[in-house]
Amino acid sequence: MALVGYSRAMTRRTITTEISTQGPALHAGGTVNMTLSPAPSGQGVVFRRSDMGGREIPATYDRVGETRLGTVISDGGGATVGVIEHLMAAVAGAEIDDLLVTVDGPEPPILDGDALSYLMLLERADLKDQPGVRRAVRVTRRVEVSKGDASAALEPGDGRHFDFDISFPTAAIGMQTFSFDLSPPEFRLKIAPARTFGFMHELDALNKAGLGRGASLENTLAIDGDTVVNKPLMRFADEFVRHKILDAIGDLALAGGPIIGRFVGHRSGHTQNNALLRALFADPQNYEMVDL
Questions:
Q1: Domain endpoint, select from 134, 157, 173
Q2: 219/205: higher pLDDT
Q3: Shortest CA distance to 253 belongs to which of 112, 124, 95, 129?
Q4: What pTM value is reported for the model?
């Protein structure tokens, strides 16, 4: 079957060699060490907490327990890994199926606040195809979730298309829209470099709640009133909506395989993205599994 955005044989993919990095955790602060390792065909993406006896958590939508300020997966017994969406977006953008992610803290290091820094790390480890069937989730009928004025939907389609619009009451962002067909080269060029963003007036409250402690003017676009404080760090005029698509790509990567269809987001975030996957898989008539 012909699918938009695919150019390689649809065997499974992992990395060739182990590679490590370190840096601050976005919310917890402190330094986190992370190692990306090759994984056997069929394993999927698994996170391991080396500081908690090597407890492992599969990166799947049904392991998500928190979505307020990032996507957090849990093993149900106290071990969690949060803010995984940027790394998962890079994994999806590189079309990696099997990977072991070992961290010695509650989050991967935030690095540059984008997906490009993770993607470059994966590329340095070298990608390799390995035997095994790659399966995709083909959307067969429209599924939508909403909360307040935020909504997210999946619709049938032949490729991996994203339409997103956002609106913020600040001239620094305003209304932004972006449409995008996901493929490795287009992801690397148009979405992966988009950094995360936050509002200065929320930082004090976040810090008091033990969050945002690793955010800095080097890894987060900081908005103060109608101004982007560190505007020279911006890579796109519409970087904010592009980053929202980056988040959506990372969150949808928890489906267990590429999603073939069209994603439509309206002011949505991690909560709607995870709810959308749960709604999709709640009814077998919404999708079909296909071999690529």
A1: 134
A2: 219
A3: 95
A4: 0.95
My answer on whether 164 and 99 are in the same domain is: no
Residues 185 and 69 in one domain: no
Other CB atoms within a 10 A radius of the CB of residue 126 amount to: 11
> Any catalytic annotation for residue 266?
no
Say yes or no to pLDDT of 207 above 70.
no
In a domain, 5, yes or no: no
- Note the pLDDT tens digit of each residue in 171-201: 999 999 999 999 999 999 999 999 999 998 8
Q: Which of 91, 108, 134 is the last residue of a domain?
A: 134
Q: What whole-number distance in Å separates Cα of residue 61 and Cα of residue 70?
A: 13
Residues 243, 180 contacting (CB under 8 angstroms)? no
Question: Which residue among 27, 86, 266, 270 is the active-site one?
Answer: 270
Q: Is there a single domain that holds both residue 260 and residue 229?
A: yes
Q: What is the pLDDT of residues 245-263, one digit of tens each?
A: 999 999 999 999 999 999 9
Structure tokens at 190: 């148009």
Q: In whole angstroms, what is the distance from residue 14 CA to residue 96 CA?
A: 5
DSSP annotation of 78: S
Residues 128 and 167 in one domain: no
